[in-house]
Design goal:
Blueprint lengths: L4 E5 L4 H12 L3 E5 L17 H6 L2 E4 L10 H20 L6 E7 L8 E3 L13 H16 L5 E6 L1 E4 L11 H10 L5 E3 L5 E2 L1 E3 H11 L7 E5 L7 E2 H13 L2 H6 L5 E3 L1 H14 L2 H10 L10 E3 L2 H7 L8 H14 L9
Parallel strand pairs: 1-2, 1-3, 3-4, 4-6, 5-14, 6-11, 7-10, 8-13
Antiparallel strand pairs: 9-12
Length: 342
């Protein structure tokens, strides 16, 4: 892949920034496009990409998106779905294009449980929120409108840390949930104890994106996630987090009980009560958890055989218990990123 010219959308975001850095470090030219996902809602978001640049582009990595679980249908359609159509249009005008990478999510399969292989699915199982729906719709858009292009759909799992040290530079719903928990504001966790959680590092995702977009890798869907056998269940994760927090003196002194697993109806009642009477921090944090809660009752058996074919011997899943433990320790030590590690 010598002399690649890579356009990265959402290069100002977390994953897009990591991918752009990987390509630059390898000596390739990177065209960083757009700091805000909302740019994709403009009629022609790529008007700034010159004709000369289009003639030279060899790779497009589309990472720009609204990734909030509470995004509304209209915004999700405009940015996540219609935005992909515009990216496909750009790709068609790049005669040297070797790879078009579309970042998606393992939750684009919606509320489908059981074995989940690296293929496109219909939306018959339904979705927990409009974010999931929009990423499913975007995948369909790529496969249909871009069927003659060298596309790869990259379904990313939940990024919990930058690397296996547990350091975190961008928070998501996972970290907000842990903050509620540590502060004693999460007495109930919705979900089934046996539902698996798919957790990865930013390093793993960025490296996998670059490898999957190399010349000669087949068009198709790739799970940027570890297989079910290398992942924690919700029940196991609760125990790991509890053990990590209970090792902290201030947490022990508060005598915070371990959260109970609850059914969806009970959790919805709790969330409704907090929305009406709870404090601002609780409401804000729960807002990121509630739209995803239904997924925690669905056990997905993710398969990543196609990804492992590409990565070969370099694929080494981390110990999931250690990763979650170190992430918790880093969050506590830095007060969720507000202070440097001592």
């Amino acid at each position: 892949m010598a002399g690649a010219v890579v356009l990265v959308t959402g290069a100002g975001g977390y994953v897009g920034g990591l991918v752009a850095r990987r390509y630059r470090e390898a000596g390739h030219e990177v065209l960083a496009h757009g700091r805000e996902a909302g740019d994709l809602s403009r009629p022609d978001p790529f008007s700034g990409v010159t004709a000369e640049q289009r003639r030279r582009i060899t790779h497009i990595v589309h990472s720009a998106a609204i990734t909030r679980f509470d995004v509304g249908r209209e915004a999700a359609q405009a940015v996540n779905v219609d935005g992909v159509e515009k990216v496909v249009g750009l790709a068609r005008g790049c005669p040297r294009l070797e790879s078009l990478g579309i970042l998606s999510t393992v939750y684009s399969t919606g509320l489908r449980g059981g074995p989940i292989t690296e293929q496109l699915y219909d939306g018959d199982a339904g979705f927990a929120n409009d974010y999931e729906w929009s990423k499913w719709a975007a995948e369909q858009q790529v496969a249909e409108a871009g069927r003659d292009l060298p596309w790869r759909i990259l379904r990313v799992a939940t990024v919990v840390a930058d690397d296996e040290s547990g350091a975190v530079t961008q928070h998501n719903a996972f970290h907000e949930t842990l903050k509620l928990w540590f502060n004693g504001l999460l007495p109930l966790v919705p979900g089934d104890a046996g539902a698996r959680l798919y957790l990865v590092t930013g390093d793993f995702v960025a490296d996998a994106v670059v490898r999957v977009l190399e010349r000669g890798v087949p068009t198709g869907v790739y799970h940027l996630a570890h297989a079910a056998a290398d992942s924690l269940t919700l029940g196991e994760a609760i125990n790991v987090v509890s053990d990590a927090f209970e090792a902290v003196e201030i947490y022990r002194r508060r005598r915070v009980p371990r959260p109970l697993l609850g059914d969806r109806e009970t959790f919805d009642m709790l969330a409704s009560g907090v929305d009406a009477f709870g404090g601002g921090m609780v409401r804000q944090s729960l807002r990121s958890v509630v739209p995803f809660a239904r997924q925690l009752f669905v056990d997905k058996e993710l398969d990543n055989a196609e990804l492992r074919k590409v990565l070969g011997d370099t694929y080494r899943p981390p110990n999931p218990t250690t990763l979650v433990q170190r992430t918790c320790e880093w969050l506590v030590a830095t007060k969720w990123g507000r202070h440097a590690v001592a």
